[in-house]
Amino acid sequence: MTLTVDVPDGLEKEIDSEVEKGRYQNKSELVRDAIRRLLEERSEVERAELNKEYAEEIKRRMKQVEEGEIGLDDMRTMDEIAEDEGLKE
Does pTM surpass 0.85? Predict the structure, then answer.
């Protein structure tokens, strides 16, 4: 697949510099790497957010147990909680 991307002159110079330094074989390789890294970073951020929400929900449920609102027998599994709360990937 071919994709044409317009970039500002300053950014193009930086891209050219990276290629000239031998860090990348060509401009396409640099752009592919940049996109791959961006997607990986976003994925990591999303996972971290889900983990935080998951932990908060577990704490909330444990507080309910401590306060006698629900018994341990009433506790659902962590997977069930995550699924119900939309926190499971």
Answer: no
